[in-house]
Structure formats: structure tokens, C-alpha cells
Records
---
Amino acid sequence: MGEGSAMSDAFPQDFTFGVATSAYQVEGGIENDWSDWEAAGKLKDPHARCGRAVDHWNRFDADVELIERLGATAYRLSLEWARVEPEPGKFDDAALRGYRARLETLTRRGIRPVVTLHHFTHPRWFPRDTPWHQPASLASWARYVKEAAQLFAGLDVVVCTLNEPNVFLMGGYLAGLMPPGFKDPGLTWAACQNLCRAHVLAREAVKAVNPSAPVGLAQHLMVFAAARAWNPIDQALSRLAEDNFNHAILEALTTGELKVRFPGFVATAVTLDGAARSMDYLGVNYYTRAHLKFLPGAPWAEYVFKDPNRRGLTDIGWERYPEGFAQVLKQLARYHLPIWVTENGLDDRRGDRRPEFLHQHWKALLEARAAGADVRAYLHWSLLDNFEWLEAWGPQFGLYRVDRATLERFETPACAYFRRVATTKQLTAP
Ligand code: FCB
């Protein structure tokens, strides 16, 4: 990473700095398939509940001021499908009006909304009646996105159809760790095809209302490495993960062909109507590197987070690996699309390690840009401490810390640093 050269230390003037959240993790008061999962005692702490979350639904205007104070000009938020369509085909007007008002507020304040339509959660009826592995899922989804797209009329928004479909498929269909809780490769493959089709349907619905809104999705990209560097099976596993977890869906939505690859050959492939060139930008969520190890029996593989550079794992136990950020961004150049970093961040419960993390990751981003990756935006995960899925309330990903008892928001030391870089577009040390 070149230190000090004028070019690599400056972001372009039109580069976007922003922050991200998702509805279920911050809004509060939502009942959906995830709240049922909690009630069934499936989180690490079986008593943990999302509940009122951090009450972002009621504190939206005050939270927008927090976004402004960061000098951020984009806010990635998601619509909660369960709020919008609590019963099949019955839309909640108050919820729709509430979301529209939020998008208008952001726009008025010069903050561009980046709106995710699906961020892991569903109304209760969806997995019960029309789960993703069934063709009927698409009719349900089409009805929802047609309604949701109306919210974008006349607004300058960026639309993110799906958040991390690869993580949802791994967690919800292959590993049984999140709802709907399957452990079934056949269902995973069926659901994967339908999620790609869902992206295409959502794109069509959005373009019908707002043809100029850029539409893409947010993919979770990891760096994979062999847990035992000398072991050829671990090496093959890393390639398999890289091809399928990182790239299969992105490739499908650029070429129209969804493929499962094994090292050296394509195991199965399907052509998806309308999927070719169906992204206007690539959304990237980057956090860490995983080391993969082959196991001689089910589940056949495990991943571990190592700390070979002795930087200290983040509090959730993930390796800090900014080099990997540059690596994945450079890899994406092959898709010839503008890149938006839709998430990047760390769990820092002490609250003082985020400035250094930002500095390292921004340096990596500039390095990737200099090498030809067309990165246009960086959205930090997260604006606020929030409910972290399986881990519930332990992790603290927020630029603003939230007191769990009072829900009061407090600046962390990273806020001033974020504002300085976001407003000057100059990468200086924290
Ligand atoms: C990503 C999710 C996001 C958040 C971060 C920490 O995988 O998209 O909701 O939980 O991880």
C-alpha cells in the first residue's frame, strides 16, 4: 500500500461516504420469522430478544441528525417486509407512509437513501406458505416489490434488492443456523435460483416506477485460505468457497448463468431469464478472511479465524484483514461495474479501535481504486450499535454507541475521524 503519494491519499470529490443499518436490527417492535426464531430459543443466548431494538423507528429524525453529523451523504436502510405486508396481500398503509416519509426526510437533508428490500427477514407467513425453495415464493415476492417500488417514485434512491443472499443461503438453507433453518443442499440450490430470479423481478418493479434508480445487491465477500496451508483438500475447499460463495450469484446476475463449480469443472448450471446484466452496480459487504479446514465426515468443513499478523481479532472473533479488502475489490474489476461498499465495520466493545480500522480499510480501498477497481462509495456498518442476529446484544458495531438501558446515543472516537475524511475526501491518519 503506497504511503504518502498524493493520488492514493485522496478520494474523488464525488465519492460517497455513508452509513448502513437494517430494519430488524434497529427499528424495534417487529414480529417476523426472526422473532419467532428467537422465541424458539435458537440464538446463542436462548433468552435474548431483539424486542424494541434501538427504537430507530420512533427516533428516526434524531438519528438522521447523527448521520448528518458524520458528514455522510448516503444512508443504507432496509424495508421490513413484515411491517409492510403483515398478512399475504394486505399492505399496511401506515407503514408504507412511514417509510416514504423517511426517504423524503433523508432526501431533503441531502442524504441519498440506499434502500434494501430484503435483509434476511420475512413476514411469518412467507416461510410457512411460500418459502424460497418453492416457485410460489416468486409470486409473493413480486407482490411485495411492486408495492415497495412505489415508495421510490420521483426520488433519487439507490436500490439494493437482496442483502447477502449467499449468507442467507448458507445460514438458512445449508447450515440451519438461521431461519428457515434447513440443512439441505437440494433446497439450497432451489432457493438460490429463486433468489436470483427475485433480484430480477425486483429490478423490473423498481425500473417500472423509477427507471433511473441504480439497482444492485449487496454480496458478502470473504477471503478464503487453507487452514493447513500444505493441505491440498483445504486448498481446494478455499477455491470452492471463493467460486461459489463469493462469485456464483454475481456471475449469474452478469452472465445469466448460475453455476456450481468444483475445482476444475462445473458441476451444475442453469440459465436464468433476465439475469444477464441485471445489476447497475455491485454492492460489497467485506469483513474478514476465513481459514477453511476439511473434516473427514459431515459437515465436511469448518472455518476458523486466525490472527497470523497479530493484530488482535475483533471482539466478535473475526480477523482484521484490510489487505483482503483490497484483494476482493480488485477481484470485482472483472465484472466491469461500479462498486459500492455497502458494509464494512468491526465489533469494538471498547470503542476506541474503529479509527485505526477505518484508516486501514480506507487505505486498502484507495489502493484497489488505484489498481482499477471502480469503487464509488463506502457505507460503514453501522450507524448505531444494534441487534446482531445470532449474537444478539453482545457486539457493538456502531459509530455511535447505544446505551442498552436508556437507548441514549453517544459518539465514539471514530465519529470525528469519519467526519474529517468524509468531508475533506483526504485520507489522513486518525
Ligand atoms: C452482515 C449483515 C449485517 C450485520 C453485519 C455485521 O453479514 O449483513 O446485517 O449483521 O454482518
---
Amino acid sequence: MDKIGKRFEGKVAIVTASTQGIGFGIAERLGLEGASVVVSSRKQKNVDEAVEKLKARGIEALGVVCHVSNAQQRKNLIDKTIQKFGKIDVIVSNAAANPSVDAILETKESVLDKLWDINVKTSILLLQDAAPHLKKGSSVIFISSVSAYQPPASMAMYGVTKTALLGLTKALATEMAPYTRVNCVAPGFVPTKFAAYITQNDAVRKDIEERTMLNRLGTTEDMAAATAFLASEDASYITGETLVVAGGMPSRL
Ligand code: NAP
């Protein structure tokens, strides 16, 4: 982290689901590179703690409670950002749910609805609210998953919603060009609360490590570095792309 630059000075970045894990890592990275960051999640306590941690690192941070499925809270997230910072340069859509390990044909309709709602639909609805405030040269990043390419049996429908984000990236990149670039990061396995099963069992952890070429799990910093690159001017000729950050796990050609 000592060698990072200042690519986001004067920029305003919103990261959803960002009070811990990959979202927090992204907010921290963008903030350390000079961005004013807006962090959010469902619980006020988590939001307050995340803001304190960011401020302790010298980052200008605003915290807003936002359950991404709540239309009023989504609107409030955008309104509070504009009231405080006046514009939006970067949006990272990071929230996801994985409520079931059932096979797709066994998955209840309510669970299908929740997966679609949180993993795909709310990303679109948030962008509808944000679009009027996006600046020229702005950047949208979706957080998908390496499981988008070959949805594993244990999280098949989750994987399919992540596949949808790859298509959404292409479609919105066309729709929002040339004013706004739209890209996507597909993380491999990162031991967060969301993926606690990775570290709960040594055999599972070892198996996942061995499925990577680099023989290790990913870190939130790995995901943050890739996201910051795509959101930055360094990627100013890249749009509609997905960057797989999975230590060489099988994804696509
Ligand atoms: P995490 O560490 O469990 O963090 C989840 C964050 O999201 C928390 O800040 C949580 O705070 C917030 N959150 C949960 N539900 C929310 C909702 N409905 N609305 C708003 N905020 C919500 O998760 P993570 O592993 O970093 O996952 C982040 C993203 O990476 C997800 O899109 C996931 O699919 C993707 N991903 C993760 C992995 C992995 O191995 N970890 C791999 C591939 C892709 P509150 O509890 O306060 O809401």
C-alpha cells in the first residue's frame, strides 16, 4: 500500500455493500488514492465503524445506510452524496446475496427473486438514480465472480446472476458510452464473511488454493487494486470488459 498513487484526487466514489470485505477494501483503496468515498450497508453500526476506520487513515468518507433492495434508501444514498460532494465520478456495485445451496431446479421462487433482486436488479435501479449525476469520464464497476463463467453446483443460481452481470456490463457500456465507462471485476475466492466456508475447513481451503495457478486465496486488496485500475484514467480506453482476478482459476479464453 505504500506505493499506491493518487489517481482519484478530486473524485467522488460510491461503493455499495462497503462496510467490510471486498467493498470496504475497494472504498479504502479509492480513498487512499485521494477519492472522497461514500460507504454504505444495511446496518448503521457497521456504517459508522467503517467511516471511522476510513477517517483514521486520512480518507474523506461519508456513511449512509442503504439496503440495496430499499428504493428509498437507494435514493437517499445518491441524494446524500450529491448534497455533500455535488457529483459522482465512480460507482462500484458490490452488493450480493447467496441465500441457498440448492440445485437450480430445487430453488424456491422467493429465493430466485431475492438472488435476481439483490445481485442484478438493484444494480440497475441504483444506476437509474445515479445517472443524472454522473460526470463526464465517470466509471461504473460491477463486482461479479469467477463463478459467472462456470456456475458451480453448490452456488449455481448465484453464479447465473453473476453471469448476468457480464451481459449487463456489455449492454450498459454501449448505453452509457462515451460519457461513462462500464466494466466489471470477477473475483476468485476471497476469505470474507460472505465466503466464510473457505477458511472454516482446512481441506476446503487447501482444495481452493490448489485450484488457482498462484496457489493462494485472493485478498480484498487484490480486488481493490483491479477495481481501482478499471475506475481510473489508466483504463480510459477500456469499457464493457470484465477483469478476472482469480489467481489463474479457470474462467475463459
Ligand atoms: P462480505 O465480506 O460478507 O461483505 C458484505 C458487505 O455487504 C457488508 O458490508 C454487509 O454489511 C453488506 N451487505 C450485505 N447485504 C447487503 C444489502 N442487501 N445491501 C447493502 N449492503 C449489504 O462480502 P464479500 O465477500 O466482500 O462480497 C462482496 C462482493 O464480492 C459480492 O458481490 C460477492 O458476490 C462478490 N464475490 C465475493 C467472493 C468471495 O470469495 N468473497 C468471490 C466472488 C465474488 P451489512 O451487514 O451491514 O449490510
---
Amino acid sequence: MSKPSIFVTRALPGDPTPRLREVADVEIWPGDEPPPHGELVRRAADADALLTMLTDPIDDAVLDAGKRLRIVAQMAVGYDNVDVAAATERGILVTNTPGVLTETTADLAFALLLAAARRIVEGDRLTRTGGWKSWHPSFLLGQDVHGATLGIVGLGQIGLAVARRARGFDMRILYHDRTRHPQAEAELGAEYVSLDRLLGESDFVSLHVPLASQTRHLIGQRELSLMKPSAVLVNAARGAVVDQQALCAALKERRIAAAGLDVAEIEPIPVDDPLLTLDNVVVTPHIGSASVATRARMAEMAVESVLQALRGELPSNCVNAEAFSRRKQA
Ligand code: NAP
């Protein structure tokens, strides 16, 4: 019997692929850029498993081509690039890598919060370009983080990890979620509030919901208008959770003080995007989980999911267990 085939859409950190090669033929896309969509479709046609990144659109065309496909193992916790319903219909398992990137992503979200609040990147730029003329009592005044109110939208794993950091800064924590979390309320003193109240009362708003139809443009013009003029918005979730055009206008007109963004509606954000002309925004290139140790753990977890699926087991991080029963019945 021939070995199963696995297509990995980018070279993996820590190279855990030898484990895959023991049981399968493995092809790794050599480029730093994602494989073009046509190439992904072509590779899916010969694959039993795809190990994918958040930049790979796994749509009908890919899933239709993948007649032998058993699993799409996404190396990310978010999987909004995967049409999960379409995969489930075809009995194809979809997995993600939750948990292992929580603390690393929370570190980055908090770094953005601090950088935007205390104008760190702006200060660095000024220092390098001769803008530091002298000490002045009104030079580069920002917002205090300690003792401020933090509103967390989506108190899941990363939202909770951000809340834990906020406790160290003596922050008051408000949260909004579709589910209440009584344990977090008790342990972190987090208060559950409506989204509108959170936006109106928070000095910092940090977004940690997945991107889905219900969360697309969750923060738009109306929501931004509810925020304080001194408020800072942090988005380390997904770009499209925020209406970026509305955000740009709010920042430009100083209707909110600043933003820290790890994600954009279009990634990479075009260099001529008007957002990048503003001083009161800090933008990082989607590096929330980008630490050496975490990326290696994510790769390992995605590899493990593939191995489980190829053994006919239900992978631990399956997001569509229904696909497993469908496959069993088929
Ligand atoms: P998680 O543990 O699943 O947390 C997501 C939270 O959002 C859950 O509490 C969930 O509620 C809540 N939620 C879902 N839909 C909602 C809605 N419509 N309204 C309000 N709350 C809603 O996921 P996580 O590990 O914290 O990750 C969160 C997101 O961060 C990921 O989906 C990903 O897109 C993003 N992320 C970005 C980076 C980066 O590099 N910047 C890295 C990692 C993750 P329930 O408990 O009811 O499901």
C-alpha cells in the first residue's frame, strides 16, 4: 500500500516534519510567500492531509480538489481562512493549535497596549530623526496604564491571559463575551458588561474574539464613537473585527487617542494605507504568536493532529468533530 501524502504550505519552525516522513510522503512549499491558490488546489488533489497557515484560503475549490483529503491541520488558533462547514460536509477534519500560543499572544497584545499608550514607537522615531530637542513638560504625553480601566472583548484563553497581566498593573477589568465567565469574575475581579458600556467606560479596549460573521466589523463607526477621546484600542485578534476605515478616521480626528494593531483587514497592510501616515497608531506585522518556542510548539501540535488523523483517530484539537462521525459512517 502506498504511503499517504501530506502537503505543508510553509517550512515549519523547529522542523517537526521527520515525524511525518516516517509515515507519509511529505512535500513542503519552499517559498516564504503562501502558495498561489491554483497551486494549493493542485497540491490538495494529491494530498491526504494539508498542514496550513492562516494565509491559505481553504475554500470549496481546495476541498473539492482534495478527494482523498482527511484533514486540514491549521497552524494557528484562528481558522477563519478555512470553510469549516464545507469541510465538515465532506467529512474532512479541521484542527487548530489553541492554548500553546496564549501567553505569547497576550504578551504582544500588552506590548501594543503599552506602546500605544506611552507613545513608544513615536518617541523612538522622533529620537532617531532629531525630534528630541530638550526635556519639556508637555513633550510626548501619553495615557497612564496603571490603575486604568481595561475592557476585554472576548474573554477566552488570550483575553484571560491579558486580564492576568492587567491585574499586575492594578487595572480595573471589564469584559464582554457571548458567554459569562463566573470563574474569571471571581478570580480576576472582572466585571461582565454590555459592549456599549465597555466601550464607554474603558481607557483601553483589547479585542480577543475570533473572526466570524458575528464579529466582522464588531467595532465600527458607532462603536468607536462610544469610546473616550483618551481611549486606546488594541487589536491582536483579526483585522476585520474592526472597520479599519472607520478606525483610521477616528484616529485622524483624535476621536480616540491611539491604537495598537497586530492585524489588518488586508495583510500585509499596503504601505500606502492612510493608517500608516498616522503617528497615533502602532502596527506590527501579525506577530502575536511569533516567539521561537511558541512557533515550534504550534508546528508540533499541527503535526500531531495530522498523525492522529492519519491513524484514524479523532485529533485532540478538532474543531469539527462532526466530520469524524461522517467519515466513520461513509
Ligand atoms: P478562544 O479561547 O476561543 O477565545 C475567544 C473568545 O471570544 C471566547 O470567550 C468566545 O466565547 C468569545 N467570542 C466568540 N464569538 C464571540 C462574539 N460573537 N461576541 C463576543 N465574544 C465572542 O480563542 P483564543 O485562543 O483566545 O484566540 C482568540 C483569537 O485571537 C483567535 O480566534 C485568533 O483569531 C486571534 N489570535 C491572533 C493572534 C495573532 O497573532 N495576532 C494569535 C493568536 C490568536 P465562547 O467561550 O462562547 O466561545
---
Amino acid sequence: MAYVISDDCISCGACAGECPVGCISEGDGKYVINGDECVSCGSCAGVCPVGAPAEA
Ligand code: SF4
Ligand code: SF4
């Protein structure tokens, strides 16, 4: 299952630099994960200050 970023995201950008496959990008009002590329490593969730990324 891929990770998904919730609306709690404050667009700090921390997660994008941690993703090993580079599948996180800045979207409209929050960051978004390309679920087709996500390998569910959990790194994004580990660095997010507001707990926005979670396994869907
Ligand atoms: Fe990237 Fe891992 Fe987060 Fe998926 S779970 S978006 S691969 S950092
Ligand atoms: Fe949004 Fe969390 Fe990623 Fe920051 S680390 S951009 S708050 S999902």
C-alpha cells in the first residue's frame, strides 16, 4: 500500500528530500505522493512534523 499525505500537511518540504524514490512533490496547498512509485518505506512519515503521511 502506498503512503498518502493528508490535508494536515503544512508544505514544509521535509519529506520530499527523504524519499528514496523521489515520488513526493509540491502540490496545490500540500505535498503529494505518486502512489505508483511509493515503496512504502515510511521515511516521509518519520520526518513529518505534523504526521501527515500515512499508509492508505
Ligand atoms: Fe517516499 Fe517512502 Fe514516503 Fe513512499 S513511504 S512516499 S517511498 S518516503
Ligand atoms: Fe507536508 Fe509533512 Fe511533507 Fe512537510 S513533511 S511537506 S508537513 S507531508
